[in-house]
Amino acid sequence: MLNELDIKIDDNIKKEKCFTVKYSEIKNKRIDATYYSKNNQIKSKFDLEELDEYKSFCDSGSRPKGGVANIKNGIFSFGGEHIKDDGRVVMYPTKYIPEDFNKKILNTSLKLNDILIVKDGATTGKIGIVDDIKCENQNINEHLFLLRAKKELNQKYLFFILSNKIFQQIIKSKITGATVMGIIKNEILNIKIPIPPIEIQNKIADEATNRREKAFKLQEEAKNIIEEAKKEVESILF
Questions:
Q1: Which residue range or ranges hold the Type I restriction modification DNA specificity domain (predicted)?
Q2: Preceding omega of 64 cis (within 30 degrees of 0)
């Protein structure tokens, strides 16, 4: 994908051990080296545009006061723990919100290909994509952002961009907080991403999706082989 977009960080920047920033650039803003690191400055043969220009919706969810520990059914409430390292969004452990409460927050009701971003805690910045129809019409809690793009931006392309190592590094640089780490919505929307023609976005999204699905299939096959081997050993020993 990086080759297709010609995304790169200048080799000269990689070699630099220190850098300077003008006072005018940091006045009334954050003062930490990681945030302004030139390693977070990328180049691409396509225009780099702020995500804010291409988002149709971005907001966090919520839960009723008092928590959801004792709620045994209703509408599933996704949190950071439901996003796997590979970007899959799973429905375990089970967490619910009442249907009446869900009606008050339908703006964050999930659709296929919605992007979820962990907004605070130890896994801040982790990215997931809703690709299971069972997740549709469920909702999210206050620890996640839901991100939807305008039609000019392929949603799956955006997922693969934001979950890419380089962009994860950029997202991590925008995290603030000491006791409780987190990232604010504006910092996400200020990230600049390459915007190729929609045909190229679709091509990248399709190719990356196919590779991802093949990887999941191989993982499942390997898991089944291991289980069969365990059973064979058990049959011999016992």
A1: 66-207
A2: no
**Domains in the chain, please, with CATH?**
2-195 (3.90.220.20)
Tokens of residue 16, six digits: 């630099």
Give the Cα separation of 195 and 48 in Å (integer): 6
- Can you read off the two tokens belonging to residue 86? 């590979």
Peptide bond into 196 cis (omega under 30): no
59 forms beta bridges with 146
Q: Is 143 exposed, middle or buried (0-12, 13-18, 19+ CB in 10 A)?
A: buried
Spatial contact of 58 and 147, defined as CB atoms under 8 Å apart: yes
Q: What is the pTM of this model?
A: 0.86
Scan for tokens 């006072």, then name that residue: 23
Provide the residue count of the chain.
238
Cβ atoms of residues 7 and 47 within 8 Å? no
Q: In whole angstroms, give the CA distance from residue 48 to residue 52.
A: 12
Name the token pair of 122. 């130890």
What is residue 34's predicted lDDT score, i.e. its pLDDT?
67
Q: How far is the C-alpha of 195 from the C-alpha of 154, rounded, in Å?
A: 10
Helices (H), the chain: 2-5, 11-15, 23-26, 33-36, 99-102, 155-162, 165-173, 185-189, 198-237
The whole-number pLDDT of residue 32 equals: 72
From the CB of residue 157, how many other CB atoms can be counted at a distance below 10 Å?
Answer: 26
Amino acid at the residue 43: K
